[in-house]
């Protein structure tokens, strides 16, 4: 039986405010709350709420046969909690139906999987915990930020207990292979890979209105595939529904009609975590260099392609270990927010998708000013003159000292009690 | 295609950007095989590069019939023009210009600069144009900047050939809005009479349409380009501790020097390892020296006075940042020259060249915070400096006069 596996991504960064160099050391608040709120409210009103309603209706009318997954970044969940709690509630309602799955991703929608494995681990754990707290289920499938994947990242994910990873259909990886099978990691066979079907996903995400696509036609295309190709992975940004494809294009009616036509053609809907239980792997995929879901090259150049981006990322991740030793809440919060991939995408000369800066240079200048202030704060916590190992030892001594004092005090108490008992007797 | 061009300046003796642009454009156009250019300037010095066009000095063209001996003419102007040509041009005198003061050859003397009696020189230039229009063989007339519009218009009236005018600047740029009515009158008449108007930027095109009420269909932008620099590798940057930020140009209201001083003040509040240089001269220089003293940054702020020739490129190459905060700049060639020698540039959005540059920092001329921020980022951040340096140089090296010339040619063809 053929299955469609739908998954949607939701991520919006905290927008940085205009931050000049003479504010370094003076102003430690980096965000443009107005822009951030405006951005998310737009999405909520034009897309998320209507889309959630639509999906809930689809699940109801299909008796739970329609199923789909969501990957919502941690920083976006924070924004939703603050600016649009009704959306969180609406997702909780969806979670109750049992027909949706929430995926794990690095909390800050960061490039940590490439630059800082420890950070990646921590962020995925934080995110999973947040998902569990909000929606009641521990995620078992990983949607890495921007669908970035390599063998190395797969290994990291496997160690974290993930059984399934979503990746993109990159031509240079797939070669002649079809994306419509389950594959596995190149040397960890139990880790399954689901390949996003580029053509069918983008038919909806980018070409829907141009193709004047109908649900009937779309399902026909899918059912015309060779019989043994049985998993069609459709992944896209959630804003496809209502923003990229506005309501007037008929996108919501298209979605509503999908379950009916699919069932007519004996096509099922399935969640990423279910796919791997029901399907055997068609073989291993080897991915030496990281791939992503952006552009035709499907690589990391949109975030790491030029000198500006490399410099910003190097400076940021150079302090990763150090920051993780800190306990200052606001500092840790900023550390996450500054890692969102968007900040680096804006520094691209060719592909600055979604930027609100006039040029890559402006994006870089602003970010580096903010980062300079952030680094000063890190330095103020633990001066960089002490290296990490030494610092770790010192911290340990300090922490142990407390314990030691506690132990000694306890001993002292016991002795005092003993003494007073002796005196009594 | 034979073009008769009227200009005012031609290298090596130039006073502003007009001469540089005239040279670059004609050289680029001369690469088209069937292009023949005759370039008229008021007063040539004899050392102009004539390998790709023919230069006629207006000061050697007779406008009043005088009998002269061949040998005498040869001894007087032989170094500039062949005596036979003088006698042949003399046949083109059809009007009585004896009211104009001429020498014994019947020629008018021109300063070739921007003297106080500029309006008189402009009208004398018109007289010369009439002689040339009667005698020369050409298909199109091309006038560079307002000084030569009357000459171009007269030549058009006489020959019936189409006239295109090239707006390198308008009086709105030069005067920050306080327009001289006489100059405006000359500019307006030139534009009204032209068959097509070329502007050096969209910014200028907008001014021409809005302030001079021209039909937008008649106005086309042809962005300037930059000549490849010979011996580019001879310009080097000597190692020094302090970074150098340079302003280079006339120190006048139009160029916004005060914004540079204020931005420098901001940067120096945060870091001391930067020096600021204001190169050039102009009527606001003393006021700027005062302002620098008042802000208490005179130990880090330097004035060089007027620089000429290769000194300009040397200064640019020695700098870590070039800044042009012009209030209104029709095009502005100097940032392109700075980028050629690998110096990152900060330019105002009110500059025409901002329209074609990606790898330069653009700010509003009044936004001293943004300017200071950009200076700080470039001097403090090697990645920023290197990106702007390398990508900027590649970008500028691809802006070619040949391409600008092709655009001009298209316009010629459309009005023929």
List keywords for this structure.
heterodimer; A: 425 residues; alpha/beta; 7-stranded beta/alpha barrel; 19 helices; 53% helix; 12% strand; globular; B: 416 residues; Rossmann fold; seven-stranded parallel beta sheet; six-stranded parallel beta sheet; 41% helix; elongated
Please give the CATH architecture of the largest domain in chain B.
3-Layer(aba) Sandwich
Distance between the termini of chain B: 10 Å
This entry's quaternary arrangement is: heterodimer
For the secondary structure, the number of strands of chain B is 13
Strand content of chain A: 5-15%
Overall SS class of chain B: alpha/beta
Classify the fold: give the CATH topology of one domain in chain A: 7-stranded beta/alpha barrel
Kindly report the CATH topology of the largest domain in chain B: Rossmann fold
**Main CATH class of the largest domain in chain B:** Alpha Beta
Q: CATH superfamily assignment of the largest domain in chain B?
A: Glycogen Phosphorylase B
The overall pLDDT of chain A, averaged over residues, is 93
Low-confidence stretches of chain B: none
> What is the molecular shape of chain A?
globular
Low-confidence stretches of chain A: none
Tally of individual helices of chain B:
15
Integer-rounded radius of gyration of chain B? 23 Å
**Number of helices in the DSSP assignment of chain A:** 19
Largest interface: A-B, 19 and 23 residues
Shape of chain B: elongated
Structural class of chain A: alpha/beta
Most strands sheet of chain B: 7 strands, parallel
Q: How would you explain this protein's 3D organization?
A:
With about 425 residues, chain A is α/β, with parallel strands linked by helices. Chain A has helices spanning about 35-60, 75-85, 85-95, 110-115, 115-135, 150-160, 170-175, 200-205, 210, 215-225, 250-265, 270-280, 300-305, 305-315, 320-325, 330-335, 340-345, 360-380, 390-425; strands spanning about 1-10, 70, 100, 140, 165-170, 180-185, 190-195, 230-235, 240, 245, 265-270, 280-285. Chain A has a domain at about 1-285: 7-stranded beta/alpha barrel (Alpha-Beta Barrel), CATH 3.20.110.20. Chain A is built from 19 helices and twelve strands. In chain A, the strands form three sheets. In chain A, strands 1, 2, 3, 8 and 11 form a five-stranded parallel sheet that branches. In chain A, strands 4-5-7-6-12 form a five-stranded mixed sheet. Chain A has a two-stranded parallel ribbon with strand order 9-10. Chain A starts with a strand and ends with a helix. In chain A, about 45% of the residues are buried. Chain B is of the alpha/beta class and about 425 residues long. In chain B, about 40% of the residues lie in helices and about 15% in strands. Chain B has 15 helices and 13 strands. In chain B, helix 9 (about 255-270) packs parallel to helix 10. The interface of A and B includes residues 312, 358 and 362 of A.
């Amino acid at each position: 039986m053929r299955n469609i596996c739908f998954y949607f991504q939701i991520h919006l960064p905290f927008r940085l405010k205009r931050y000049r160099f003479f504010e370094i050391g003076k102003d430690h608040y980096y965000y443009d709350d107005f822009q951030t709120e405006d951005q998310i409210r737009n999405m909520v009103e034009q897309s998320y709420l209507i889309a959630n309603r639509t999906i809930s209706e689809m699940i109801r009318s299909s008796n739970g046969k329609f199923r789909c997954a969501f990957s919502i970044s941690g920083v976006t969940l924070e924004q939703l909690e603050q600016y649009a709690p009704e959306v969180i509630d609406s997702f909780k309602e969806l979670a109750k139906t049992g027909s949706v799955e929430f995926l794990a991703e690095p909390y800050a929608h960061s490039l940590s999987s490439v630059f800082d494995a420890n950070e990646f681990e921590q962020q995925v754990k934080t995110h999973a915990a947040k998902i569990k707290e909000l929606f009641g289920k521990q995620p078992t499938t990983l949607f890495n930020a921007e669908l970035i994947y390599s063998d190395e990242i797969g290994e990291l994910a496997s160690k974290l207990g993930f059984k399934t990873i979503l990746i993109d259909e990159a031509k240079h990886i797939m070669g002649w292979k079809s994306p419509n099978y389950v594959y596995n990691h190149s040397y960890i066979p139990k880790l399954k890979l689901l390949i996003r079907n580029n053509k069918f996903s983008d038919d909806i995400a980018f070409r829907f209105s141009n193709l004047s696509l109908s649900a009937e036609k779309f399902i026909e295309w899918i059912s015309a595939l060779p019989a043994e190709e049985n998993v069609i992975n459709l992944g896209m940004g959630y804003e496809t529904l209502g923003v990229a494809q506005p309501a007037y294009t008929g996108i919501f009616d298209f979605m509503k009609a999908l379950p009916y036509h699919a069932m007519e053609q004996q096509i099922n809907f399935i969640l990423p975590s279910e796919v791997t239980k029901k399907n055997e792997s068609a073989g291993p995929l080897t991915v030496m260099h990281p791939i992503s879901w952006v552009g035709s090259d499907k690589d990391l150049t949109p975030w790491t392609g030029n000198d500006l981006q490399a410099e910003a990322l190097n400076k940021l991740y150079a302090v990763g270990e150090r920051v993780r030793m800190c306990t200052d809440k606001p500092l840790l919060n900023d550390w996450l927010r500054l890692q969102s991939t968007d900040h680096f995408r804006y520094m691209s000369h060719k592909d600055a998708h979604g930027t609100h800066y006039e040029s890559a240079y402006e994006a870089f200048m602003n970010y580096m000013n903010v980062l300079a202030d952030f680094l000063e704060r890190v330095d103020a916590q633990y001066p960089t003159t002490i290296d990490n190992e030494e610092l770790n030892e010192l911290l340990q001594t300090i922490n142990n000292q407390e314990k030691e004092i506690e132990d000694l005090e306890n001993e002292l108490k016991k002795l005092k009690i003993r003494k007073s008992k002796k005196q009594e007797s | 295609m034979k073009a008769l061009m009227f200009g005012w300046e031609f290298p090596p003796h130039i006073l502003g950007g007009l001469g540089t642009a005239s040279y670059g454009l004609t050289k680029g156009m001369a690469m088209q095989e069937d292009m023949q250019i005759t370039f008229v300037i008021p007063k040539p010095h004899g050392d102009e590069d004539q390998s790709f066009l023919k230069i006629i000095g207006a000061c050697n063209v007779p406008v009043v019939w005088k009998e002269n001996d061949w040998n005498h003419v040869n001894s007087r102007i032989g170094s500039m023009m062949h005596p036979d040509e003088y006698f042949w041009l003399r046949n083109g005198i059809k009007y009585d210009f004896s009211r104009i003061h001429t020498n014994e050859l019947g020629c008018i003397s021109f300063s070739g600069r921007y003297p106080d009696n500029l309006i008189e020189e402009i009208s004398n230039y018109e007289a010369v144009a009439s002689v040339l229009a009667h005698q020369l063989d050409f298909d199109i007339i091309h006038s560079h900047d307002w000084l030569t519009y009357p000459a171009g218009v007269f030549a058009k009236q006489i020959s019936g050939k189409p006239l295109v005018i090239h707006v390198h600047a308008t009086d709105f740029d030069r005067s920050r809005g306080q327009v001289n009515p006489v100059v405006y009158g000359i500019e307006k008449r030139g534009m009204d009479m032209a068959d097509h108007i070329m502007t050096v930027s969209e910014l200028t095109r907008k001014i021409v349409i809005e302030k001079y009420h021209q039909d937008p269909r008649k106005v086309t932008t042809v962005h300037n380009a930059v000549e490849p620099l010979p011996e580019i590798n001879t310009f080097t940057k000597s190692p020094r501790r302090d970074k150098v930020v340079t302003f280079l140009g006339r120190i006048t209201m139009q160029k916004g020097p005060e914004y540079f001083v204020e931005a420098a003040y901001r940067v120096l509040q945060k870091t001391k390892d930067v020096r600021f240089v204001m190169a050039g001269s102009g009527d606001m220089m003393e006021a700027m020296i005062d302002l620098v003293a008042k802000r208490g940054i005179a130990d880090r702020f330097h004035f060089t006075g007027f620089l000429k020739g290769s000194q300009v490129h040397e200064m640019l190459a020695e700098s870590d940042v070039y800044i042009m905060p012009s209030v209104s700049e029709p095009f502005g060639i100097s940032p392109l020259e700075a980028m050629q020698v690998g110096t990152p540039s900060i330019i105002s959005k009110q500059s025409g060249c901002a329209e074609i540059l990606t790898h330069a920092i653009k700010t509003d001329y009044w936004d001293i915070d943004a300017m200071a921020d950009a200076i700080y980022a470039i001097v403090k951040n090697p990645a920023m400096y290197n990106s702007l340096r390398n990508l900027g140089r590649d970008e500028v090296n691809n802006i070619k006069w040949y391409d600008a010339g092709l655009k001009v040619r298209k316009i010629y063809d459309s009005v023929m």
